Amino acid sequence: MTKIWNEAGFVTDDPWILETEEVKAGSNEKAVLGLDDFLAKTDETGLGVLINPADDVRKLEGHLDRLALVAVAFPAFNDGRAFSHASLLRSRLGFTGEVRAVGDVLIDQIPLMLRCGIDSFAVTNATALKRLAEKRLPGIDNHYQPTARASEDVGSYSWRRRA
């Protein structure tokens, strides 16, 4: 069972549906389309788009004002291209809407996903669901580089010296 989590906790009434050939969004739901399908709907707003690992997220430039959600896919724990997609969306493209991780979302990766600009998570992993329910998110004390989300503690960057 998939549950949506963000830093405020679990979301109980999430309207987003990843559309496929078999599954379509209903009247009280919002569609998350594949990149090509989204680009084909040039006049609709309030949609979501799914960015798969091989997709070029830069194709969304000029369309970000029409988007309410960008879902970045993690098809396997060892495929980290969605980290780059989220970072590009936030830092280079200036997307301010919701970025959601979907797919193989593991508890150990969530702090890194947050740093890249991902702010909600479609979680199915039993261990991750349990730890999130217990508010046991693993922490990272030192960072080697800045990311799309600023660190609360400037001193946590091991390479940054204070004058």
Q: How are the SSEs ordered, and which strands pair?
A:
Layout: E1 3-6, E2 9-11, E3 16-18, E4 30-34, H1 35-40, E5 47-51, E6 67-74, H2 81-92, E7 98-103, H3 110-115, E8 120-123, H4 126-133
Parallel strand pairs: 3-4, 4-5, 5-6, 6-7, 7-8
Antiparallel strand pairs: 1-2, 1-8
Textual characterization of the structure:
The protein has 163 residues and is of the alpha/beta class. 20% of the residues lie in helices and 23% in strands. It has helices at residues 35-40, 81-92, 110-115, 126-133; strands at residues 3-6, 9-11, 16-18, 30-34, 47-51, 67-74, 98-103, 120-123. An eight-stranded mixed sheet has the order 2-1-8-7-6-5-4-3. Strand 7, helix 3 and strand 8 (120-123) form a beta-alpha-beta unit. The longest helix has 12 residues, at 81-92. The protein is globular and about 40 Å long. The mean pLDDT is 88.
Number of strands: 8
Total of DSSP H or I helical runs spanning 4+ residues = 4
| Unreliable spans | none
Write down the overall geometry. Answer: globular
How would you describe this structure in keywords?
alpha/beta; 4 helices; 23% strand
Question: How would you summarize what this structure contains?
Answer:
Helix content is 20%, strand content 23%.
